[in-house]
Design a protein that fits this description.
alpha+beta, six-stranded mixed sheet
Length: about 425
């Protein structure tokens, strides 16, 4: 006979109020807010920190607000580089726009490498009381045979890949774009919703301390007999550590999406830059990596049978600008609030009723805005439209300030200026799909 206390300890170690699968920004934010509310949370991460993620590493004021809400030290002494706004390049123009002055959001963004950024969030969740398991590769959901409701997950733990089963009445899928857990629960991507791809690399560069995020709205492929304008945008973000993050975001709404090797396009684009910036192969400090950008609620429903989707697993990437981190963190906070309220209900039926509000809150918060974004994506999928908009728009700073607020989703919901009222009005009347 084994020691019963050891068996009990192992059982309680693998039981919790909530399981969160994936410790990226969405999962760690969810776990942090749940732990802060006093719930017992298991945070399961398939790799070990620090780990690489493909990202622009630039954070807008929306993401900055979420970091402040998590109590993370975002001072420059703690290694964060602040940015003042966005510099837009295109149509022969350069326009520098500061982040708007708003009551709802700070007037600065941040830059931080994703390997380090994600670890900071996971450690903050741990500090709040979440139980983090690294090298925990989650396999299949554990389902109640009678109801089909998820009651846990199976996983392989550690380097020895020890099989374990974790149990909880609520599970959060924060396992990214491919979201194996969502697929196992029968939730597939909607191919009608836009998808993007990001490819990026790092270069040693004298531009590393640039305090504006730089966005290039015209992406030229100059390698053939004729120059070709591509659907998407380029970015250059100074990292403050001697390097620049240089990358491309491309939409799937074009014929060029499948036929081009985007790593080669990035190399060609970098080759067209001024030599003194140093974006040359010998200054590259790492390989070119790519990742998918699942946009505009491209996997639904966001709650079903005990499973909530947050971040990329639920397609919470802004279709206007490809930003994912702010929405990953915001959806994590919303999911945590809903789960906390559900946890306090007395009966299973009452808990279920509370959990079912989660998709409604997401649609209320982002539905109209993402619908506008889908229309925008269709429009700029045509490079001629993008070229015309860039050439005409960048000569009108007031119009571009409006565009910045719209693209970055930065408005005050109440008491804002005329631009805020127009944007808020548009998102209210757009269908919340």
């Amino acid at each position: 006979m084994g020691d019963p206390t050891v068996a009990e300890t192992a059982a309680s170690e693998h039981h919790a109020d909530v399981i969160v699968v994936g410790a990226g920004p969405a999962g760690s934010t969810t776990a942090y807010h749940l732990a802060q509310a006093g719930l017992d949370v298991l945070l399961l991460e398939k790799t070990a920190f620090p780990r690489e993620k493909v990202c622009g590493d630039g954070l807008t004021p929306r993401a900055t607000k979420q970091l402040v809400a998590m109590g993370i030290d975002i001072s420059e002494e703690a290694g964060w580089l602040r940015n003042k706004g966005l510099r837009i390049v295109g149509g022969g123009h350069r326009l520098q726009l500061d982040w708007p002055e708003l009551a709802s959001y700070p007037d600065y963004g941040l830059v931080r490498r994703r390997d380090d950024f994600d670890e900071q969030l996971a450690r903050q969740a741990e500090k709040a009381g979440a139980r983090l398991f690294e090298r925990c590769n989650v396999g299949a959901p554990v389902l109640d045979e009678r109801t089909g409701v998820i009651t846990g997950v199976t996983a392989k733990l550690g380097e020895e890949k020890k099989p374990v089963t974790f149990h909880a009445p609520v599970v959060v899928a924060a396992d990214g774009n491919s979201s194996r857990l969502s697929l196992a629960m029968g939730l597939h991507r909607d191919d009608k919703r836009p998808m993007g791809v990001a490819v990026r690399t790092y270069f040693t560069s004298p531009r590393h301390e640039d305090d504006y995020l730089e966005s290039w709205l015209e992406l030229w492929d100059r390698r053939g007999p004729e120059d070709r304008l591509l659907p998407g945008y380029g970015w250059i973000f100074g990292m403050g550590d001697g390097t620049s993050n240089v990358g491309l975001g491309i939409l799937n709404s074009s014929s060029a999406f499948k036929e081009l090797d985007w790593r080669e396009v990035l190399k060609a684009w970098c080759a067209s830059m001024p030599e003194e910036w140093g974006y040359t192969p010998e200054n590259m400090t790492g390989p070119i990596r790519g990742a998918a950008l699942p946009m505009a609620f491209n996997r639904q429903p966001h709650y079903t049978r005990g499973l909530l989707l947050v971040g990329d697993s639920g397609g919470l990437v802004n279709p206007f600008n490809g930003e994912g981190i702010a929405y990953a963190m915001e959806s994590g906070q919303i999911a945590a609030e809903v789960i906390t309220q559900a946890h306090a209900r007395r009966t299973p039926a009452q808990r279920e009723m509370a959990l079912r509000t989660y998709p409604k809150v997401l649609k209320e918060t982002y539905g109209g805005y993402y619908t506008l974004g889908r229309a925008f994506v269709k429009l700029i999928g045509n490079p001629k439209v993008m070229k015309l908009a860039t050439e005409r728009g960048l000569t009108h700073p007031v119009l571009m300030r409006f565009t910045l607020k719209l693209l970055a989703n930065l408005t005050d919901p109440a008491g804002g200026d005329a631009m805020d009222r127009v944007i808020n009005g548009l998102t209210k009347v757009a269908p919340r799909a």
